[in-house]
Design goal:
The structure is a homotetramer of 335-residue chains. Chain A has 335 residues and is of the alpha/beta class. In chain A, 39% of the residues lie in helices and 23% in strands. Chain A is built from 13 helices and 13 strands. Chain A has a 7-stranded mixed beta sheet with strand order 11-10-6-9-8-7-13. The first copy, chain A, has a 5-stranded parallel beta sheet with strand order 2-1-3-4-5, with helices on both faces. In chain A, helix 4 packs parallel to helix 5, helix 5 packs antiparallel against helix 13 and helix 9 crosses helix 13. The longest helix of chain A is centred in the C-terminal third of the chain and has 20 residues.
Chain lengths: 335, 335, 335, 335
């Protein structure tokens, strides 16, 4: 059994803690939150005594690994502390909003041999995984185009935007990682347009964007398009389309159920898509824990590692430079 | 070029006449209707002089074949006259509402060698045909169950019911034929329930039914279900499902277009199904003419012949006997 | 917190025990199996000491309710024992294969006021529930036809058949209940045909059937068709279609994921349907526990009670009488 | 009745001629092709004497309008000749490969009042039209993103590429027009990447591209993505997706029929998409003729006019400039 402690008991931390507790080969070995009440609530529900200070977690012999679901500015520090204490890490994205800080963290943990997994949950979604597997198995021949549709069901509150780091670092970063996963290759050029269409006033004030389109290209010419919106009223829209020389694979959306309606106006009308990430990616989050437990058991390289987190952030940086310059940006310009 | 004359210039006759006129290997060689105005209108639109009397059609050397789309009570007479004149026949269903008259017609034309095709258009629908072909090709192994959904978009007018001959002879007869086509075998037992749910008053007055469910069985045990309703507000509902030991094939509905809508309440909401037979089976009606032209050119057995028309009517008779007795009826009881 | 003990630690008992253990308002208060090893395994996995004898369960003050997932012949006895001990019951279907035994059990527990829920899980499926809710909300006007497709992915082993009680009591019984749920009304007539198409030898030897079609009718004429097969190679096929005067609702199948494939031969090719009841009805089984916990908390009538179990069995009896007589059977003939 | 002559009797000319001949309010008033044999074949099939010289067409009093389906370099000349002769025009895209020639043609016909329609058939597709109508009716609120997928089923022959004028002028030009139609607004910026992934050798030799991704933006920030490929083996892939503040509309692909297959490996596997434009856009081409006939009858502005043809070409020019510079190009740079 792998002992995993969860740092951060907000929405996503609570979900992870429950998944850890339910995992047959894992034990929830601790919970911590800067807000002691939040930690106490999760601890009570799952039968774990919350840590009074984060240091207790790193010092505990029952803790083999930590799952970092705290506020973004603490991620890099906790990764470094965990690795120093010899605890494996599963850290929510992004590693940090600042690429320089990410680089320092990378140096700090270099050569440690401690597994550090980054929380790009979408790679573990059964549909996305089946699509990628089909490509890897040669089902569609040579991959030529990837189209990623990634739209949130609604605008988050202002307070969220204030710390999120901007659309590309907060939301698109998942799509940048998914693009790398699906392409099986590195994008070397990035073009981006960003729009302020849903809440122009707020977006302008915060210098952020709520709507975006991106085009990327790999060294051998594979093309990838990402489109983002903060408002898909029909549900969290998460699709991936992969076109190759001998076929296409599409990973589509999930609904809460498969009842459809027929009337004088419509046929085959389905339910809205699952509302947001906790519902849409429920299986992915469980499979992510599964992969992490296996990785800690084997003390091996994770399927999605620190470098994946860093490269996704670099693509976000390149997208911002493209926004600023109006041109296709070479990724090595921002590395 | 095959010269085809159309008898009957109502809705379905007009459609057939246009299809004949547009066929590359056929010529519309005459039109006739008891209502001279109806014939004149079709003739004018398609450049054909209408016949003043039906005898002109049968006497014309330009007429190789007649398409009978007149009122049901005239079908058997016209078949006999056409065969006597050596003209091939494509006759709309049913041959007659009375099985005895059908038998006499059969005797009258026996041994003539003149092709007589019956207008079971659904056999020529590309989807139904693809489904049957898949079964014939062994794609689903041994066929076990056939489910036919057949629902009209709305109630016809009272005048229609008064001459239609009852639900099973008028509407279900198409499904009885389709069942035989899909089963590739003869049903030997029929069970039926009929309901008066949509317009109970009218149905009771006319001793007719607007809603029905049927179960049939072949000698080797294959099962077939048909359900009928006169009111599918979402469009003409025409589905066939074929279950076998190694798979299933389903022939589904067609829409006018493939635009779908997404909102806060629904996703993937499609257009209503094509409204009725002229639209839904447009391709089938054209393919039916195509098969008839080929059959006349070769002076060969049609794909759907007189015996198919007779057998479908026998199944309707068996269904009525089941209604009357509340039991599964052996088809040979009514033959 | 409601204390629930699980009797029977086979496949379905283990699933229920895990669901009980994971429920926020329930506690797994005991497990028992005639095979002590099976009980020990479930107990170890879920942290519960297995009972050495079933009597310990009924005597335990920690047990508010029992979930009966033992062999069918024990169901009625355990229901009576539980009710006598004042423990609420959730009992897997069928109550018993013998209607007489069911009647005696009914008498034995009459007037106790102890909640007895029957395990008709499908009523709790989100898709089926949404379909039923749409009808109840008047979305499709007056309900006219119900079509239930219910096919297992493959034949169970011979040992299963030997004790299952026949297709209608074992498999169709779920569909009989679902029909009642969807109709919102009692069928008063039943017609059935049964076939031996998949394994004719075994079915004949056991006097059982592997393929069936059923038609039922309510007092006011609503029609219901059920089709069953033991071999749907494309997955557990569980559909419900509800036709009304102003629309239709269909509850369809679930897949493990939504990836689709496109090639030179096919488009939109989806994954097989979820394999069997544990996967397909995972949410339904959880919702069933949820409803049961709420029912025990309120010590109230369950949503699906003893009488529902009895009525489904009566419909199975009527279906067997129809098989034997070849006619539509009035349900009150077998009550 | 409107007399329409068809210039050019190649594949698309033959199709148009048949559609004109079948139109209830139009008459095929002449056919011409530089290859007299091609014109003779179409004339024979449709009962029209082919013109020996193009001048006969422009001089004929029976000709109210000409449909220009000849080789691209002749389009502008024939438009000018037709307008000078007072004949309305329906001209296949593009007006010319050279924007300068298009400008001169524009000047030459300015103020004539003669209707000139450009053959952007996709605007008349029932699905695309329903999607646009839904947006116009406010169904999705404010339009934010348009995604156009446009992929040919396979590579045309080398001879085709040699005269086609490059991917953006030949193939994407339809998508540029569709983008304008769907946006209901002018793109003011264009970004494009082009790839040589399917036949790199041929594409490099001809300085052409077989795979592309484009991003455009309107003055008020609406975003549009187009993706193109010359090889979608699953059929001609023609989709449009429109995202707005209160919903989404998608216009999807059409299949030859709606039969689907189920096996141990797949479910709901549909037929390939309709192979190419003649099949996929059959209804659109008929509706295009319908609109043209109405436009000639009223001697009014066509729904898709010369300026639409010119603007689509300008977007192609902007896309080429983007390819050359690697940056987002303002459309007014190339006007």
């Amino acid at each position: 059994m792998v002992g995993i402690a969860v740092l951060g008991c907000g929405r996503i931390g609570r979900m992870h803690a429950a998944n850890v507790a339910a995992h047959p080969n894992a034990v929830l070995a601790g919970v911590y939150d800067i807000d002691a009440g939040a930690a106490a609530a999760v601890g009570a529900a799952l039968g774990v005594t919350p840590a009074g200070a984060v240091g207790e977690i790193f010092a505990s012999p029952d803790v083999d690994a930590v799952l970092i679901a705290t506020a973004t500015p603490t991620h890099a520090d906790y990764i470094e502390m965990a690795v120093a204490a010899g605890k494996a890490v599963l850290c929510e994205k992004p590693i940090d909003l600042d690429l320089g800080r990410v680089e320092r963290c990378r140096s700090a943990i270099a050569g440690s041999g401690v597994p550090v997994q980054i929380g790009f949950n979408r790679r573990f979604d059964p549909g996305h995984r089946a699509a990628r597997d089909a490509v890897a198995a040669g089902e569609i021949g040579d991959l030529h185009q990837v189209v990623i549709t990634s739209r949130d069901p609604g605008m988050p509150p202002r307070s969220y935007y204030e710390v999120a780091g901007g659309l590309f670092r907060d939301m698109t970063i998942h799509d940048f990682d998914l693009a790398r996963f699906m392409l099986g290759d590195e994008p070397v050029e990035v073009f981006a347009v960003g729009g302020r269409l849903i809440d122009p006033g707020l977006m302008a004030e915060l210098d952020d964007h709520d709507t975006a389109m991106i085009v990327m290209r790999t060294a051998d010419g594979k093309q990838c398009h990402i489109n983002n919106s903060r408002t898909a009223v029909y549900g969290y829209d998460q699709r991936v389309e992969l076109l190759g020389t001998t076929g296409m694979v599409v990973s589509g959306n999930r609904k809460a159920h498969e009842a459809t309606r027929y009337s004088a106006r419509v046929t085959e009308a389905a339910a809205p898509y699952q509302f947001f990430f906790v519902e849409r990616y429920a299986e992915a989050f469980r499979a992510e824990i599964d992969a992490f437990v296996a990785c800690v058991e084997a003390w091996a390289e994770p399927q999605v590692g620190f470098e994946d987190g860093r490269r996704a952030l670099i693509l976000a940086e390149a997208a911002y430079r493209s926004l600023a310059t109006g041109r296709m940006v070479r990724v090595d310009e921002v590395e």
